[in-house]
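Look at one record.

>
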Amino acid sequence: MRFRFRSIVLFLSLLTAPFSTSGETRADDGAWVDTYRDVAARIIGDALSSTFAWDRLALMGDTFGHRLSGSKGLEDAIQWAVAEMKKDGLENVHTEPVTVPHWVRGRESAEITSPRQRPLVMLGLGNSIGTPADGIEAEVLVVRSFEELDAHSDRVKGRIVLYNVPFTNYTETVQFRGNGPSRAAAHGAVAALVRSVGPAGLRLPHTGALRYADGAPQIPAAAVTAEDADLLQRLQERGTTPRVRLRMDAKFLPDADSFNVVGELRGRERPGEVVVVGGHIDSWDVGTGSTDDGGGCIVTWEALRIMKKLNLRPRRTVRVVLWTNEENGTRGANAYRDRYKDQLANHVLMLESDSGVLRPSSFGFTGSDAARTRIKQIAGLLRGIQLDRVVSPGEGADIGPSVQAANIPAMSLEADGNYFLIHHTPADTIDKIDPMDMSRASAAIAVMAYVVAEMPDRLK
């Protein structure tokens, strides 16, 4: 294995070499990036020489399990991260307090009671209220869109509405999870079911947060698998009206104390100018949140660890932030914005990794044309590990509030693979992630963050 890694490092050092060193160059042709080729090769070589990032993610998931806001698992993981960052030699390691919602799933189940009894595979939606102790049993109305719901509004009262909307992409389909319960309740539904927001596969239920609309009744809501949603659809299309019993103990406890985690490498010349990288350390209460977003936390943290290990101290400060409460509140993101509101103008770049680390493929970027040109030139240093592509946009739920408040250039690490197949499911575990993919992601983020923090002119 060690011989394989060394061979890769040698191969990459060749790939990161300049394509041509002859002839005159213009100031805008990217030749300035050549200054950083040797350090980029060192970073990539170190990242790919071990499975350190994957091993750390496995340790976090195996030790603390899921990390839902308000849970002991989350708070223990936060304290562990602080201790580990200090061991890594990061600077200014500390926590920043955030008050978070404390939603508890409790016991839950769903079953068809007519025409023939059979269980449904389900997960209650985050932030949902519970049912009465005996549950809710009612006839089901299956619809495929909000328009179909409205067209049959006279049939909704007293029923459980099921949105059976096949997954297209997350942005289009997630609206039925987020807004569907309140839309159904406005017509008199007693509960809502949502086809899981993700590709069909292996009868997996996907949880995720709902948002109750002001003025609409609050009703219990859960996700069912694509297979079970289609079953109920077929029954209805044959002229049968299925009945379902839903039981959910879900409830809110009083808000809990939590924290964002911060660690830095202080800039040697301009420490007040900051490049931020990070992910969210909380997860849903199923699986271990390894792709969403334990992996994002570890690969951004790893970028700073590698710089520290290689004695690389850029001109500007590089800061890693592990945000809390992204999944059901984004209070960590808002707290960061508010805490640093007077310093956001000195945030040079904010980079979030929250799209999984399954086959990292590109960087998303949002910023000026001039900044995009610079980012593309830096990305050229990553051609050897196939991460030199820059797409639009660059965004993230945790960097979003700060980026919008101060118009900060924004980046995101993008990845291919079956992220949404396991997203918010019990299958979100470490075994789905290739150690080399985590090493590639760590290397790419480290190179990008280092060069942006080190280059003489600020990214604008």
